[in-house]
Amino acid sequence: xxxxxxxxxxxxxxxxxxxxxxxxxxxxxxxxxxxxxxxxxxxxxxxxxxxxxxxxxxxxxxxxxxxxxxxxxxxxxxxxxxxxxxxxxxxxxxxxxxxxxxxxxxxxxxxxxxxxxxxxxxxxxxxxxxxxxxxxxxxxxxxx
Length: 144
Description:
Blueprint: H1 4-13, H2 17-30, H3 32-51, H4 63-96, H5 102-111, H6 113-143
Helix pairs in contact: 3-4, 4-5, 4-6
């Protein structure tokens, strides 16, 4: 059986996908409750919009639906941003071998809300431009 110094020397010199997947699975299973509850809370606005009826255009009153949709979109952005921060913080604490505390993870996530929101906006713009410059011309060529 190899001692821990041999393992750390091997781990520092070699990259093994199996080791990475094993460590990721361990962090995931050790913090399953935090990750599951966070994901459930982040998904609630999506579930509410999906379960609501579409706009009642025939009755001439679609404003209620679009108001709910706007509020849900705002909630999605806020909850998704905080949820990502909470999960990332929890994962890093798990990788460090530290206990993951929900209150501490939420506090750290809220403290980094605006930088993460800025990153989400920048990555959304990048995805939009990539779609416009690559997918749309490809679809136009495909149709022609």
